[in-house]
Amino acid sequence: MAAPLHGLMAEFADHEALSRAVEATRAAGYGRLDVYAPFPMRDLARSLGFHPRILPWIALLAGAFGAALQYGSQYWMNAVDYPLNVGGRPLHAWPAFLPATIIVAILWAGGATLIGTLLILRLPRLHHPVFAAEGFERASQDRFFLVVRADDPLFDAAATARFLAALAPRRVQEVSA
């Protein structure tokens, strides 16, 4: 019995060939694609339909929560819990509270962005089916890979393999799940 299929992987020698292949694959109607390259390719992110929607909101909400928590704790400590009049300073000295509030807001936003990114990308990933594909270790060096996943509605192993071969890759191979 054959192992379940994760998808088909096409290997390309340069980023222009990969960009053309992604555009052709999207134009053919495939939607469940993964791309692996040794450097960021922002044009491919747009071609693949990746738009970061939730991450800016995570950062904004976490930053606002951190700022409110910091400002509220400073207010509580200085004006409510232990009011101490030093040199005629008002108990609610908001200008003195702002630097720490801004710093903590940035800290919370950065931490939430890191955690949100790791959760959204499901990292750290100790194993992925493409890691076992022949030659995939070069994805971090000088090769470019396009994977059409088997869960794509248009995926048919034979037809998709013929389609990918028509894009002139170095090779097309199956990736077991």
TrEMBL record:
**Keyword Membrane set for record:** yes
- Entry-linked Pfam families: ActD
Q: Which UniProt keywords apply?
A: Membrane, Transmembrane, Transmembrane helix
Q: Please indicate which superkingdom the organism of origin belongs to.
A: Bacteria
Q: Which segments cross the bilayer?
A: 54-76, 96-121
Instruction: Please indicate if the UniProt record lists Transmembrane as a keyword.
Output: yes
Spell out the InterPro entries in the cross-references: ActD
Q: What is this protein called?
A: DUF3341 domain-containing protein
Q: What is the lineage of its organism?
A: Bacteria, Pseudomonadati, Pseudomonadota, Alphaproteobacteria, Hyphomicrobiales
